[in-house]
């Protein structure tokens, strides 16, 4: 007896950032399936898919951020529950699509008696039943090794580059700290721009507090583009911009993948010397976001291409010409 099976792609979304999932579905030409997430009176979550998922190649989209009625931790638990429900309903393969992977900054022990939370979260997704992970611009690429299975690490560089090409020829791409130099160098090479580095020092024992110290590179009279993977409270990017202007920069533009924008971030950006902030839609903008400085570009096309490549068992790195691996 011989049976020829057909693959079926199913895309579902949690509640953290449904508009992004809808854009991805539109790019793929399919409809989002419903996980029917509901909460009991005590806050516990429940999930039941509206249709059979047996034998499906299932992609479960949830960015790890707070949302109406929930925190980032709620979003991650919701994601895990959707994965578990799909596994128990006999999905053939389950791919976790997390445009922004939560706890990515806790990828090592910087002091004694600390957790490595990024590893724990990766283990939880594997235990829940995930076969594969997809994410964008991890804080540290080595996090891919925390998951016992394939992890497709995408980059938002193609869409951010599209927004940066109209800034003129006399550009300097600036890394806000030593940890972002390699990524900033890729942008500088692609834009045909020079590279500079802002040396910063974190204040020991105080979270989200940094002190920008010095600039390595020629920035006087030039347009500076600060590249980073995220803007959280805005302390790093704003301090770096102030140092650049003090060193004679003509103007400062910031480009980042993940607009976390927590706490005082919006106020800091509004009061800063930064003229324009280019971000992607991996995360929903806060309700109080002032869009006068912020420009949002979508990564839905990048994610849709990656999902399609995984579904067709094709190369994901070919989408970026291998640039996502460098």
Explain the layout of strands and helices.
Blueprint: E1 9-13, H1 18-28, E2 38-39, E3 45-46, E4 57-61, H2 72-88, E5 93-98, H3 117-128, E6 132-136, E7 151-154, H4 157-164, E8 171-175, H5 181-191, E9 194-202, E10 210-216, E11 223-231, H6 235-246, E12 251-259, H7 265-271, E13 276-280, E14 294-297, H8 300-311
Parallel strand pairs: 1-4, 4-5, 5-6, 6-7, 8-9, 8-11, 11-12, 12-13, 13-14
Antiparallel strand pairs: 2-3, 9-10
Based on the model shown, name its key terms.
326 residues; alpha/beta; Rossmann fold; seven-stranded mixed β-sheet; five-stranded parallel β-sheet; 8 helices; 28% helix
Can you give a write-up of this model?
With 326 residues, this protein is of the alpha/beta class. The protein has 2 domains: 9-155 and 300-325, Rossmann fold (3-Layer(aba) Sandwich), CATH 3.40.50.2020; 157-297, Rossmann fold (3-Layer(aba) Sandwich), CATH 3.40.50. Helices cover 28% and strands 24% of the residues. The chain contains 8 helices and 14 strands. It has helices spanning 18-28, 72-88, 117-128, 157-164, 181-191, 235-246, 265-271, 300-311, and strands at residues 9-13, 38-39, 45-46, 57-61, 93-98, 132-136, 151-154, 171-175, 194-202, 210-216, 223-231, 251-259, 276-280, 294-297. A 7-stranded mixed sheet has the order 10-9-8-11-12-13-14, sandwiched between helices. Strand 8, helix 5 and strand 9 form a beta-alpha-beta unit. Helix 1 crosses helix 8 (300-311). The protein is globular and about 75 Å long. The model has no long low-confidence stretch (mean pLDDT 93).
